[in-house]
Amino acid sequence: MTRYTTTATERLDLICRRHYGHLSGTVEAVLALPVNAHLRHLDIARLPQGVQFALPPAPTRQPPSPRVF
Q: What is d(CA 69, CA 61) in angstroms, rounded to the nearest whole number?
């Protein structure tokens, strides 16, 4: 597990995209960790500077579901 400390006004989705290379289930995986419970009380679209949290191993990426026309 990787520890991360934010700089001023970072967004959780952009941190996840940069770290994992995709967004598929990554924000949800970060928020689901008990050690990251404090993130649920913050604005994840504008995290303040100095917030520390854990980035879990990359969740398995689900293939896109087929489109039905």
A: 24
CA distance 32 to 34: 6
The token pair that represents 23 in the structure block: 């967004």
Q: Distances in Å between the alpha carbon of 64 and those of 19, 24, 36?
A: 21, 10, 28
| Angle subtended at Cα 33 by Cα 50 and Cα 26, rounded to the nearest 5 degrees | 85
Distance CA 20, CA 28 (A): 13
pLDDT tens track for 32-55? 999 999 999 999 999 999 999 999
Q: Which of 61, 33, 38, 65 is nearest to 51 (CA)?
A: 38
Buried b vs exposed e over 43-60: b needs ≥16 C-beta within 10 Å? ebeebeeebebebeeeee
58 vs 2: CA distance, rounded Å: 11
